[in-house]
Design a protein that fits this description.
The structure is a homodimer. The first copy, chain A, is of the alpha/beta class. Chain A contains 13 helices and twelve strands. At the A-B interface, helix 7, strand 12 and helix 13 of A face helix 7, strand 12 and helix 13 of B.
């Protein structure tokens, strides 16, 4: 199983490490021997059709800041021209253009490669077009790491929908906002102080706009709703209200009455993102950098999934899960 | 898709109703047109190779207490001799002998039928033998309704395990015990009063032994641990302590210190069932007739699933999910 890895940041490196750590297990349990034949990122690229030394590549990235040589060709072209079965797309997310992930995915599909990605950008701007391209080229597209990090929220939603109907979805899809709101609640911190702490602890970006203004949640909600066939809405159709500047007195007041303010994504009549007061006993009302989603099903009632929504090793485990699912689809011999 | 339904109690009837309610959806979304060609239970049986009228069968069951004529042949023989692709096994559970489900499943496998069951009995007494028989006959065995009712606990565990390693499992697998403990906690009720209430509201059987002594939880834990490849233990190897006669003062004391007593199933170093004091903020610490399971994963951390653990429509939705999964396995044209 030959793999091209695009993006060698936190998630890409975690994925490479996971391949090393799990190699014996992958061979014995799934009959899969992954071979990383190319690593490409914005800085450089290394290629070896026989399989790269992952350990060497990781070490090089850590010492030099990039792998291999500066790119002569553009990344999409390297992806198209490298012989492999799967592209793992883990480059940084751009919600506005979807790039560079969008071009990477197109190049992979055009050269008949399956795509596994955790990049929300291309899905935010071209969800149905990407599916159409995959189908047209007879390959698969998987993206479970795009929603919920390592927590299999999309898989779980599909399990809920098969044999039942999902009536509504409510949940927390952004761990950064949840960390901030939990801090404000526990310590009576102001929004600004809680945000600074989130940045210090690595939960929030230097530019936290996409998280705190609700845009990241909205994109994930759109991916989930489209994936589950609940809606064909795009991000423009989501009513979005974020948590920027939320009053700490409001947060503390909620706590004192046995409730909590959370940034809640809802798919029921339309899609929306909004700070919402929840009963503390509601299982969706988790604290800290977690995600939680409730699928309300017609016959089997409410079902909730909770887990970490981000992180390198977490998201890498989703990439590996998707890779095994794709492998399962073209190899009936797996024993998963 | 021709189906034999064995067992026409609460779950069997709910499943039949679900087939009627979802028929248009099954055809359009999955290309599946299920045809119920036989309903057999301990009281009687009806057969029609062209497909039974489900509505008529449900009405007959409700008015006469059984469907069709009293059985001339034994049920296993009817299962073996009826032409069909799938057996849905929903007869009552017997943990000691596995019967009658065990014989039904053997008859189905011998006649090359896939089996979908929510019956814990045959899995408790012959988990690996049943898998072996299915494999030997080239058919599938699915049983997601056996653990968690309509909540896809086994599917979720598999999602967690793919791409990661499950380090430990802790959870609440018996809704009856959880209802009783929640009542004791909320109202200060004694164990006996809470049990009576659970019986009155239909959560506990007239003979509640299997629930309150932890045996039902132990069987589910064994099914889950074997399914996920965490253990090959049988029920005899589970350390079991139930909640019978638990002191209400102990329950109330836990509440007063921000904790709660729950009957917890654990798979880590061996398997055990035991009343355990949990932090109320632990997401596994749900109240009422719910199940909750936490899978602790090596790379992606803890992940929790919560949902109703029993009930007719709930369990029926699991049977339908399994049926669609089997259908998917022998029909690549599905669009699920």
């Amino acid at each position: 199983l030959r793999i091209v890895l695009a993006g060698f940041g936190v998630v890409g490196q975690s994925f490479a490490e996971l391949l090393v750590l799990k190699s014996a297990d992958l061979a014995s349990r799934y009959g899969v021997v992954p071979r990383l034949v190319a690593i490409v990122d914005s800085e450089g690229s290394v290629l070896d059709g026989r399989g790269l030394s992952i350990k060497k590549a990781l070490q090089e990235k850590r010492t030099k800041g990039r792998v291999g040589d500066r790119n002569g060709r553009d990344t999409a072209r390297i992806i198209a021209e490298t012989e492999a079965e799967v592209l793992i797309e883990a480059t940084p997310t751009n919600f506005r253009t979807g790039e560079p992930g969008l071009s990477h995915m197109k190049a992979a599909f055009a050269s008949k490669k399956h795509v596994v990605t955790c990049n929300k950008g291309p899905l935010a701007v071209a969800f149905h077009a990407m599916h159409e391209l995959a189908r047209h080229n007879g390959v698969q597209l998987r993206y479970s790491g795009a929603v919920g990090g390592g927590t299999p929220i999309l898989d779980f939603g599909q399990s809920c929908a098969r044999g039942d109907d999902i009536v509504s979805v409510t949940g927390i899809l952004n761990g950064t906002c949840n960390f901030i709101l939990s801090k404000m609640e526990q310590d009576g911190a102001t929004f600004d102080d809680a945000l600074k702490l989130a940045q210090k602890e690595g939960y929030a970006e230097a530019d936290p706009t996409l998280d705190i203004d609700g845009y990241d949640s909205a994109v994930k909600l759109v991916i989930m709703a489209n994936h589950l066939g609940l809606s064909r809405a795009t991000v423009k159709e989501v009513k979005i209200k974020g948590i920027r500047g939320i009053d700490s007195r409001e947060v503390v007041r909620a706590r004192e009455s046995g409730r909590a303010i959370r940034l809640i994504a809802t798919a029921e009549h339309g899609l929306s993102i909004s700070p919402t007061s929840l009963d503390r006993n509601d299982p969706v009302c988790v604290s800290g950098a977690y995600n939680a989603v409730k699928f309300h099903c017609r016959f089997s009632g409410p079902k909730v999934i909770i887990g970490k929504g981000a992180g390198g090793p977490e998201t890498a485990s989703s990439l590996l899960r998707d890779l095994l699912d794709i492998r399962g689809a073209f190899n009936e011999g797996v024993t998963a």
